[in-house]
Amino acid sequence: MSGIDSEGTVNRVVIVGGGTAGWMTAAGLASMLGPTGLDITLIESEAIGVVGVGEATLPHLKQFNDTIGVNEAEFMAATSATFKLGIEFVNWGRKGDSYIHPFGEFGLPNEGVAFHHYWRKFADRPDVGPLDEYSLPVIACRNGKFQPPSEDPRSVFSTYRYAYQFDALQYGPFMRSLSEKRGVKRIEGKVTDVALDAESGHITSLTLDDGQEIEGDLFVDCTGFFGLLIEKTLQTGYDDWSEWLPADRAVAMPCESAGPPVPYTRATAHEAGWSWRIPLQHRTGNGHVYSSQFLDDDAAAETLIAGLDGKPLADPRFLRFVTGKRKKLWNRNVVAIGLSGGFLEPLESTSIYLIQEGITKLLELFPRSHDNAVEEREYNHWMDLQFERVRDFLLLHYNATERDDSDFWNHMRTMNVPDSLRERLSLFDAHGHVSAYEHGLFLVPSWIAVLIGQRAMPGGYDARVDRIPDEQVLQHLAGLKGHMAKAAGSMGDHTGFLTSHAGMGRTV
Amino acid sequence: MKAKRLSVIGAPLGVSIVGAWLSARWLGPGRELTMAVSGAAQTSSELLLRPSMLSFHGELEISPDTLIQAASAEPVFSWTAQTPTGAISIPFSPYGVSRSGVEFHHYWQRAGELEDVSDISDFSLPLALENAGRPFNLKEMGQLPVQFGLRLDQARYADIMLQFAKQAGAKITDDTNQETEADFVIECVVDVESAAWRGSRIGLSAPDDLSGAESQVFANAARRACALIGDLSDQPAERAEFNRLSENEADRIADMRTLLVAEDLQHSASPELLRKIDVFRACGRIPTEDFEVFLSPEWLAALRARGVQPRRYDRMADRLPEAELLSWLTQLRRQIEQITSAGNPS
């Protein structure tokens, strides 16, 4: 028997916290398991603010939205969203540098050899130009272009994907509305007490500030950095990764848009960290992530304000964090999703991806009963892998640099990186090969974008490139570059697409 | 400038597969490739090429039709493995059809809790095709929603690949002392050890105890070596990467071997295999490592054959109403019967 209605089975989920993580979890569970009779309650307090994590996302969010049946146009209009084809990194390899990490490929492989090897052989020639010129999404970003990708694999328009940049403060209410329509019960209140089963140590119920007692079988902690259930109650412990990623502060401040929104996020490196700029339909999101070891709060805010494109729309808002993750993101009958589970700076817009991955894995492993040690172990194994691989990729940005203009950069450039990253860098440094994995967020094109974008030019290239006569390769490069430029030129204007497909300019 | 000389030596199957790939993808100006076969191919033995070998040959522009005509190849939909309790058939394609992101076996398990349903193998199109007792031509194969491999004559296959390499410019010889004049040697043996690159020599070993694995391992190693050996100079980073990937591959194959033959699974399994067993038993999911050799349906068949059964199915399978679930299973069986009996896969 399925056992759903039997005693001792998991049939009541209580989500604590109603920010992005909380309402995404509610929407995911309600959409996928609501029809099976799962009872889902979300507790949040309007008196507690939300961090509003991650206005910029990765292409995976579209898949999540599609799976739970979110209408893209409605979603974009409701959250003032723009499209995103990549992230521009400014001042990372050296001051004055700029490159884009696109959501897509560079060139096309030939005879089984990745494109960047052909490019590398002739990279010093002026007519060959930077690698950026062989990526359609990069050219589109630089020219403010956008059109949805083609599903025809033969088309150059199939070589990229897209994500969204949205207003996180509007995203929560959007997901709340969707969740409540699908049966999620919302309770306004603050948790004042947590009851544990004396034998198993599992949480049995929560008491709210109005005296209500909320019982549950499985609890999802979306209380942000506070970690009310996973840490304050269960004392799970935290893996502190600030040894490798020492940024521990952020200051955020929205500003007016200075022009039409561009289809990419910008990350600009500074003296002791970096700042983000996320263009939305109605404003621009800005923030400065920095290390308090190397920069004080006032100086960080000054740097942020000095770089704003338009008039500030709010006072600076400071956040503190410790980079790392819980030792267990699933502990007993509590699953931590979002900032309660861990924090990695939003340099590559991974916050919402990690929330999404947490929800997806929870759905896959959703327990029938409290006897869920295997599911717990598997969930933690998977999420550890995700966090560690994202961590290495973030660290790459700081370590693969020539910057030596501050103590911060000298520290980052010369640090001992984890073995997993050191081995990757050695392999790429030799002949441009990228050590591949399947179960991780950032695949080969992403590593190439950052490594080459930050001047970590490999010493050589795949020797198979030499099998093809130089003239033939150069002709191919020229043809491809022209093809990419022409294709980008034929794409529509990003703002125009937002107006026609995402409600830009309309009153929501 | 002196040409770079690469020798591939050893057992006919390995030399022919690795050499063919290198002749197409490594050989070029300033490079020499010599292939030296030691011993004859097993003339009477059959070889199984797994489905992924079709793309390997496709990249060499060797079509399945060529193999069918020149090496008497026949499409196969599964492979046979020995377990302590007898032989089992392991399909290359999933049982049933997944639905809304949930694999079929969860639905099947749920249906079994509602009423008597026939064995899951009765919902396997590949197993039904295997047992259909009639040949399938390539046109039919292209219309079927299943992956297929090829069963062919090993000696004739090796000969086709050697001829391919020769036409691509490789030198074929029976002089096994070729390695003394080479800058780099790849030696192919049939064994269960993992491949290893040491100095200017790669030892490739492929297992012959799991049907289809040996040709797959040689093909994977050929791709890997071709990408990483470069100009044949000593390259520590590439060597480390080659060895890492090869060890991982050997470990995954060893996991399947252990799963199939170990008397005491719990005490013989690696941590990665134990993870598969535990998670499958707990909730019917099969976790994978990076770059698995065997596909999910193969692990499922092997786990079930060894008596590892899920305690429960995925709750998402409960979204389908009971009546719809049971009717769907009936339809699936009917469709499988129609496909296999009518001779018309549409």
Structural commentary:
The complex is a heterodimer of chains A (508) and B (346). Chain A has 508 residues and is of the alpha+beta class. Chain A folds into three domains: 12-55 and 167-243 and 323-389, FAD/NAD(P)-binding domain, CATH 3.50.50.60; 82-165 and 418-495, no CATH class; 249-320. In chain A, 35% of the residues lie in helices and 18% in strands. Chain A is built from 15 helices and 21 strands. Chain A has a seven-stranded mixed beta sheet with strand order 5-4-14-15-16-13-17. A six-stranded mixed beta sheet of chain A has the order 7-2-1-11-20-19. Chain B has 346 residues and is of the alpha/beta class. Helix content of chain B is 45%, strand content 16%. Chain B is built from 13 helices and eleven strands. Chain B has helices at residues 12-25, 52-59, 64-71, 104-114, 125-130, 138-143, 154-167, 213-228, 236-261, 265-268, 271-283, 296-305, 322-342, and strands at residues 4-10, 31-37, 46-49, 74-76, 78-83, 86-91, 149-153, 171-173, 184-190, 196-198, 201-206. In chain B, the strands form three sheets. Chain B has a six-stranded mixed beta sheet with strand order 8-2-1-9-11-10. In chain B, strands 3-7-4 form a three-stranded antiparallel beta sheet. Chain B has a two-stranded antiparallel sheet with strand order 5-6. In chain B, a hairpin with a 2-residue loop joins strand 5 and strand 6 (86-91). Chain B is globular. Chain A binds chain B through residues 1-4, 32-33, 35-38, 67, 111-113, 363-368, 372, 374-375, 377-378, 381-382, 423, 426-427, 429-431, 433, 435-439, 460, 462-464, 466-468, and chain B through 25-31, 59, 101, 110, 113, 223, 226-228, 230-231, 235-238, 240-241, 244, 275, 278-279, 281-283, 285, 287-291, 312-316, 318-319.
- Fill in the CATH topology of the largest domain in chain A: FAD/NAD(P)-binding domain
What is the total number of structural domains of chain B? 1
Number of helices of chain B: 13
Q: Please give the oligomerization state of what you see.
A: heterodimer
CATH superfamily of chain B: FAD/NAD(P)-binding domain
Instruction: Kindly state the number of beta strands of chain B.
Output: 11
Q: Taking Cα atoms only, what radius of gyration of chain A do you get, to the nearest Å?
A: 24 Å
Kindly report the spatial arrangement of strands forming the biggest sheet of chain B: 8-2-1-9-11-10
CATH 4th-level superfamily of the largest domain in chain A: FAD/NAD(P)-binding domain
- Second-tier CATH architecture of the largest domain in chain A: 3-Layer(bba) Sandwich
CATH class of chain B: Alpha Beta
Fraction in beta strands of chain A: 15-25%
Count up the domains of chain A: 3
What's the overall average pLDDT of chain B, rounded?
92
Spatial arrangement of strands, main beta sheet of chain A: 5-4-14-15-16-13-17
Q: Percentage of helical residues of chain B?
A: 40-55%
Please describe the biggest sheet of chain B, giving its number of strands, its sense, and whether it closes into a barrel.
Answer: 6 strands, mixed
